[in-house]
Amino acid sequence: MTYLINNNSNVTKRVEFAENSDSQSTLRANGLGLSLIKSYEELERPELPIDAVSSQLVEILAKNDTSIIIGETGSGKSTQVPQLCVKAGLHEMGKIGITQPRRVAAFALANRVAEEMETQVGDKVGYKFRFNNETSEETNVVFLTDGILLREAIFDSFLSSYTTIIIDEAHERSLHTDILLYLLRMIQKQRRENSDMNPLKLVIMSATMNSEKISAYFDNAPIYYIEGRTYPVELFYANSLTIKDDDDYVYNAVSVVLDLHESEPIDHDFLVFLTGQEDIEKAQKMVKDDQKNATTRKILPLGLYASLSTQMQARAFSKAPQGTRKVIFATNIAETSLTIPGIRIVIDTGRVKQKLYSSQEYEKMDEMPTPEILRSNLCGVLLELSSIGLKSPSTIKLLDQPNKENIEAALDMLEKINAITVKKKLVKNVAKSFVELTSLGKKLSDFPVDPIFARILIAAEKLNCLEEALTVVAFISSEDVFLPLPSSLKEEEKYTRKFDTNEGDHIKFLNIFRAYKSAKNSLKHQELKEWCVSNCINERRLQNVIKARKQLRDTCINKKYNVGSCGLNTSLLRQAIAHGLFMNACEYDPVSKSFKLISSPGIKVKIHPSSCLAMHRPTTIVFTELVRTKDLFARTVSLVDAEWIKKALDPQNGLLS
DNA sequence: TGTGAACTT
């Protein structure tokens, strides 16, 4: 069937509307309209493929409990569907929430949609992710990370402030998205059955066509396809141009930028994909060095990656000054879901790297990545789900079922740390686990960190060293603050860094935090920066640690914890750490000259060379994490007393009530 | 005696 639809822009488009099967209607806005449109620069906003079907979508959104919308990046679904929900009146009884797997995406989309709806960010349109909340009473549409919506569900298990939840980028299958899909399906059912509550409308959006699975998961919800691409962007692969240096893809990418800078109009901005933060900083510096003497036709090199501050990320979305070209060096955070205004040329270095792989490996890379839920430690999410009220996590029905052993291992761990009790019951001759949250488990789930880290905080309160424990937990649950050591450093110098202590790496973190605080009080801004560099510290990451610490501390204050300090008595702090990490306790084994895991003595580990205890030979240690390379290495290690480990294993332990 | 990098509460 073919319908002709008139839309607001006076452009007539041909739209095919085909009914494929009972469960699946197909809405196609084929690209025909695009050739009729004027250059996007002359329009308020670029014409989007979704515009052709917007009025049908409003009806669909108003009518269906659950809709699945499939559209390519650039179809406009992320910016337009929330606005169409408003047109359908879904904001009248509560908020419309739209989740993103990444913070930048939530931030950028909120800014764009606020502009299109002619409102300020934080007013009718807002965003919310960890450490940032730009929403108010007035907010109708909120862009938030999937992780934070999951947190909200702990405090409001019906998500009652929302009328509509849109899950965007469902194809990425992030751990949080998968859990949310499960949870939303359940909440939708509960709200439908409870006459006091408004129904919950769900919209699942994805870029891939393999959507039957999601549809089946939601009782065969109808699937709608939006076809077509957005405004023209030229895509260059770096290897199709002159390769200057075979080994240095950053150098190649920058060379391409500088070449194209000569030939392209100055108001066409560039987007360059690189693999990581380090490469991005390097590329920015290379461009800056090249531009030192430039007076006209300047380049403004900007970075865009997750750990960049919100302000710096915002610069990537703002306009470059007149006569200056904006060049954005980004990780894959910008690859999906983001459309950055002004970008006309995209330089993708991926191909250059890929030619380093054999064809077999190349094919492997091309396959769909394994959903995160199939390869993650499930402790944290299972505790969250128990806290929301789920009684039988072993029978949880997810889009992809994690293997049973994985779930059992996580439940076993939660039981060992006394966060839950598990009762096995026979249901229709099949053993099922029923989970009950303990009072300790409830406390642990208040903190946005791994449950074993939260246990450190609980023990620390009783040991009167919570102030210090907050610092340690903030460090171990954040990114590594150390800059990579220059290989020019001699071996001896590496291990005589001034914060090292024979108590271990956790106390070293405390030393760094204390030293930074006092340096901050006595030094000027620039001097403080230099202080960080000379101590091999990444200052921005350290600031993130400080933010995480504040968030944890606020939770403690809120829950009326006694936030005391042990001062110089760091033995108390290590005792608290032992109460969290007791499952990771190891004893030195003189026979094998390695450490054996106390909980399973067959496993032998070595202290990672980066640890300040690597050159020592402590009897008993606890570690934060294990990494497997040539051997099994324990990273971030502390010296402990064997007695503390025994005490931590005791269920009657008064420190953890 | 040696880290994949990116994402997130």
From TrEMBL:
Keywords: ATP-binding, Helicase, Hydrolase, Nucleotide-binding. SMART domains: DEXDc, HA2. Residues 58-227 form the Helicase ATP-binding domain. Residues 253-438 form the Helicase C-terminal domain. One of its GO terms (cellular component) is nucleolus. One of its GO terms (biological process) is positive regulation of transcription by RNA polymerase I. Its EC number is 3.6.4.13. InterPro entries: DEAD-box_helicase_OB_fold, DEAD/DEAH_box_helicase_dom, Helicase-assoc_dom, Helicase_ATP-bd, Helicase_C-like, P-loop_NTPase. It is an enzyme of class 3 (hydrolase). It catalyses: ATP + H2O = ADP + phosphate + H(+). GO terms for molecular function: ATP binding; double-stranded RNA binding; hydrolase activity; RNA helicase activity. This is RNA helicase. It comes from Acrobeloides nanus.
